[in-house]
Amino acid sequence: MKRKVMIGALVWALLLTVAHIQLNVGWKALSDEAQVRLGQKRRELTVGFLPVT
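^ thats the sequence. predicted structure below, dont judge the formating
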């Protein structure tokens, strides 16, 4: 019984994590961040521009 609850909780946490990545972060962003942290890719600097009138 205790083992079933533990496995169920781990599966639930894994599914919740995958759903969060899919809906809020995106797999491309996660992949890019992993490549930056592993040193395979340089981080891109995005500079915004707000025109002042």
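The CA atoms of residues 33 and 40 lie 10 Å apart.
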